[in-house]
Amino acid sequence: MKQLLTFLAAALFSLCACASGHGTPADALALVNKTAAYLADQGPAKTFFEASNPKGRFIHRDLYIVIYDEHGKVMAHGAIPRLVGLNVYNYRDEDDKYFVREILDKASKGQQGPVDYKWVHPTTQQMHAKSAWFRQVGQYIITCGTYK
Predict the structure, then answer these.
(1) CB 140 within 8 A of CB 44
(2) H helix or E strand, kind and range, residue 34
(3) Which of 14, 28, 46, 55 could cross-link 144 (Cys pair, CB 3.0–4.6 Å)?
(4) What DSSP string runs through 103-141?
(5) What is the average pLDDT value for the chain, to the nearest integer?
(6) 33: closest CA among 136, 102, 117?
(7) Model confidence over 14-27: pLDDT tens digits?
(8) What are the structural domain ranges in the chain?
């Protein structure tokens, strides 16, 4: 009985999380793949512009796209466009974790995530745990993170 109650509580929590507008890891990977297809079809300039548009096609719930070059330069950022052009290779989260380095390293090995770190939620402006999902396409790493 206790296991059933735990399961029902977890299921209810999951439903509430989805209803509240949180994207899932599957949503994040789908958005990364959608961006990769757009990049292949439209090229970097149009993709970077569209991915940096906070009301653009690469926004879903609380998910947005960030695109880095292989050295950690931000080419597009769906939540904080002012980061475009900055090299964030050495950025650390509040736990001193070099999360961008880890994303770039794993992407260069063909991995797609996750990389866990802490980042400010775009809606609440509060620090939250986050998992990044990503894919390398040529010289660019397309990322999308889910907030926990």
Answers:
(1) yes
(2) helix 25-42
(3) 28
(4) HHHHHHTT----EEEEEE-TTT--EEEEEEEEEEETTEE
(5) 87
(6) 136
(7) 333 344 578 999 99
(8) 20-147
Amino acid type, 96? D
Omega within 30 of 0 (cis) for the link into 44: no
- Tell me which CATH homologous superfamily contains domain 20-147: PAS domain (3.30.450.20)
**Strand, helix or coil for residue 142:** strand
124-137: per-residue pLDDT in tens?
Answer: 889 999 999 999 99
Separation between Cα atoms, residue 37 and residue 51, nearest integer Å: 13
The structure tokens listed for 23 are 């994207």
Whether pLDDT at 8 is above 50:
no
Inter-residue contact 148 to 130 (CB < 8 Å): yes
66 confidence band (pLDDT: 50, 70, 90): very high
pLDDT over 90 percentage in the chain = 74
Q: 């947005």: which residue's tokens?
A: 64
Amino acid found at 94: E
